[in-house]
RNA sequence: GCCGGUGUAGCUCAGUUGGUUAGAGCACGCGGCUCAUAUCCGCGUUGUCCGGGGUUCAAGUCCCUGCACCGGCACCA
């Protein structure tokens, strides 16, 4: 039996897994399950990357031993993966003995090859950041984050002769065009290789958390080098030669597009140095953007994507991620679209099809269907075409096209039912054979579609197979079982709706505010663009201080404001608004105007000038010192020759005087309102 | 600064090597059916394929150029 070994990136454990990491695991799992379906002896490995300084620090912050903290996180991670039905065969942690042994062995081999040499690394080091700083990053010689003077540090480091492997890597890329896909990633790396490589530091001095250099316990192997080696230690490198022999080289590394350099330059060079085979392929998937990310935090009614998976079962989420996102490109998750796909693909099309097949089989044939004569073969033909296309697309990791192929069968079956009208056939006994055949063909279509969907929605597909008469262990189902079977008797089972329709959105979506905040100050249009939030951030360098403040958003060109009317908007639209608390510093009436007041306000990070149309209701003097709410990301507009950089929120009854929005308690300027 | 990607229907996107009237889903309109989860089926509306120039018998697709947005590198991992 051919083997297939695939891996995902191992995850930093300084925060809990989120939808971005889940996306990678689910996509990889779809591939793993597909490979099993296609008859490969598949080995699917995931893991946690635990030797980061951030992890060490985080654990200490929580007053825990680093290893105990990692143990806890490992449980959390694996529980999430299990709840998403990710079918991992092994889970490796970089603190495990098998990993440590293998890492040291590999470094020893690299050293023996003459590729590791001793050197020094020196530079400005900020103790608070625990990081070296570039000269140009310093502000007046101080760390820009901590405002402290960094130390000039010189530490002994071991270096890897990465530069030596440039030509070999180029040759490898040349000889293996599919080594890195999609192509855009390959091109990036090729350009990088063409521009030359520097040797890299592979150790850190003076740290205890990590794996020691084989001959120098005072130095610890750099965490990235440590992490990459998991792909071989997980299959027994240095500990289980037979297992290693069986699995290595890996057939596929599934990783995020941001870490292709590590996987396609450093990692292969390390393997070359140690005389080991290179992985056959690396797939750099895109990022998942989460438009509605913030809403889950602000509105308790709206659930986190992982919670959604737990609520509806993992399959709707799995289907969304594979079918709606071109694998390799960036994708986007919004609740609106998620519900849309759930209702259309699952509730209306597949789920309803399963329901009607079950109902008709029971009503017309007491639950047992068998061929009734000559079939017109139309559904068989569609199923054959779809299954062929499916395999072709899945082999190329075009997961979205594979999923679409399976759903072509579902669509065809629904159409076929409408065209043949089994309920009409049932009224006339002379059509009994024809009715039997129609029911049989439709049931068979459902069976084939379910086989193809097993990798994508494993739990539901198994249930569907059961309902259309599949007996035996679903684990034994193979791709060839998607071949059309025109014979045999099937017992069709009726059951509850697999996916009840989501009727109206729960929560805040339909709520209409009693008094709608109105525009009282200038601003010709509403800012249309929302800064996207990639939820996938692989590295753990996310110090709060280094995260770009939302204030860094630049003003985007505003699209013309649609005449809003009473059209409902989605929560996504709402989250485009950057509302901030501001404190009025000065206020003065705009000369020659009736309603306008010019305000300068403190928004925490900066001062802004606003023009507001509230002069009829408020004397300028009474506004000074007052805390208000403003639209922070509104495109500037000129009113009476004064540029207004934002808008003040107030309740504005028709024809009445506006009343400013305020707070019950004290709120510091700059706080976001949402 | 250097390099790359994207820009297609109201929305989300697909369009493989240039080849007939540019597609899908959603949304919208009309009609049909009743087995089914107010589901399903059919028909229909909507497009300066970002702008401009060029190559060609033929361009969404190739070349040049402009604009907008995103990303990689330059500056670590």
Structure overview:
The chain has 674 residues and is of the alpha/beta class. Among the domains are: 334-491, Isoleucyl-tRNA Synthetase, Domain 1; 534-673, OB fold (Dihydrolipoamide Acetyltransferase, E2P), CATH 2.40.50. The protein contains 21 helices and 28 strands. The strands form 7 sheets. Strands 19, 20, 21, 22, 23, 26, 27 and 28 form an 8-stranded antiparallel β-sheet that branches. Strands 1, 2, 3, 4, 8, 13 and 14 form a 7-stranded parallel β-sheet that branches. A hairpin with a 4-residue loop joins β21 (597-602) and β22. α5 packs antiparallel against α6 (183-194) and α12 packs across α13. The radius of gyration is 30 Å and the shape is flat. The model is unreliable at 292-303 and 505-569 (pLDDT under 50). It binds one RNA strand of 77 nucleotides through β6, α6, β9, α14 and α16.
| Radius of gyration using CA atoms only | 30 Å
The CATH level-2 architecture of the domain at 334-491 is identified as Orthogonal Bundle
Given as residue ranges, the uncertain stretches (5+ residues, pLDDT < 50) are 292-303, 505-569
Beta-strand proportion: 15-25%
CATH homologous superfamily descriptor of the domain at 334-491: Isoleucyl-tRNA Synthetase, Domain 1
Distance, first to last CA: 56 Å
CATH fold group of the domain at 334-491 = Isoleucyl-tRNA Synthetase, Domain 1
Percent helix among the residues?
A: 25-40%
CATH class of the domain at 334-491: Mainly Alpha
Number of helices: 21
Supply the helix-strand structural class: alpha/beta
Q: Count all strands and give the number.
A: 28
The largest pleated sheet is described as:
8 strands, antiparallel
Can you tell me the overall shape?
flat
Average pLDDT: 80
